[in-house]
Amino acid sequence: MAGTQRYLRYIIFALVCLILLFFISSSSVPSRPWQEGKPQDVQPGTPPITPNTQHELPPATAPGERMNATFVTLARNSDIWEISRSIRQVEDRFNRKFNYDWVFLNDDDFNDEFIKVTTSLVSGKTKYGKIPKEHWSFPEFIDQDRAARVREEMKEKKIIYGDSISYRHMCRYESGFFFRHPLMLDYEWYWRVEPSIELFCDINYDTFKFMADNKKKYSFVLSLYEYVETIPTLWDAVKNFTAAHPEHIVKDNSMAFLSDDDGKNYNHCHFWSNFEIGNLNWLRSPAYIDYFTSLDHAGGFFYERWGDAPVHSIAAALMLRKDEIHFFNDIAYYHVPFTHCPTGESTRLNLKCHCNPKDNFDWNGYSCTNRYFDINGMTKPEGYEKEQ
């Protein structure tokens, strides 16, 4: 009897083990893959499921031919984290699809950290160049004592960058030399990128190819009036140049963007040059070189505080046809303190923009973009009235 009871206990124990094993194995069966389910299959209160949709993301490289183009940045080693932010903006919104090169220029040698960090962020090739001393110094024809007196006067008047020597070298370099650097000679198109900028919207097409296909040579996203105190004699220098070189002034130009009285006076409108996409061959042309050389010898980069923005803008307005200058409404951009947020809700939604349209500077009274549209006979984007 005792043996029979022992035997029954073994059988019951075995059955219990089998039942437990069955439940354990059932609970480990994988659930139905995400792709087989539908949104309505999820019941209220069910924890969200994040699928792995990596295969559905846009390709790392967009199809199609590439232009002979590069990004270009003037930066110092101390700008490393500010320019890293800018690179991520450009790569995430545009360049991860196109993999264009990036040229970094500096008046000193780049250190290992700057090179290592920026190279890791850029999808194309990175190139690092040192600016020749003769391009980042006082020309021999500049009276250094006079230039020093001007800086002191501007400091007393609290004019922005008025007492800065390095800022003046930067403006002169961007006006007349960056496109002549040996590293830049390999390219036909450039996109200028500054530290600490932000791009708010996706850019799903090749902007360089757009410029080439549509015969554009210069572009902008923001325009405004220059500080009058920094360029008191710039327009006089421009008129001296146009009188000496009338052959460089094209028909159907944008003089009306610059002047309200057919060129007698400058209204101080300019394109903000911290964002530019442009043609390097135009900047290297005899017309532009003659223009820069004439302004350079006038001395205003050091005797005043001429910025590269009005210098570039005046050249583009006078030496390019109106239809060779382009406004990128769809490239949303920020550089302290101004924002260009695309006008038009459908544009912002389609491009996944995260800018606040209330911050858009385009139709502000201090902006010159309204004037650009008027002189070109262009229809303003739908909804611009709400942003005035």
From TrEMBL:
Mind telling me which GO cellular component terms the entry cites? Golgi apparatus; membrane
Catalytic center residues: 276 (nucleophile)
* Gene Ontology biological process terms in this record: cell wall mannoprotein biosynthetic process; protein N-linked glycosylation; protein O-linked glycosylation
Question: GO MF terms on file?
Answer: alpha-1,2-mannosyltransferase activity
Domain of life assignment: Eukaryota
Span list, region Disordered: 34-62
The protein's UniProt keywords, in alphabetical order, are: Glycosyltransferase, Membrane, Transferase, Transmembrane, Transmembrane helix
Transmembrane spans: 7-25
The UniProt family comment states: Belongs to the glycosyltransferase 15 family.
Query: What is this protein called in UniProt?
Result: Glycosyltransferase family 15 protein
Organism annotation: Lepidopterella palustris CBS 459.81
Q: What is the lineage of its organism?
A: Eukaryota, Fungi, Dikarya, Ascomycota, Pezizomycotina
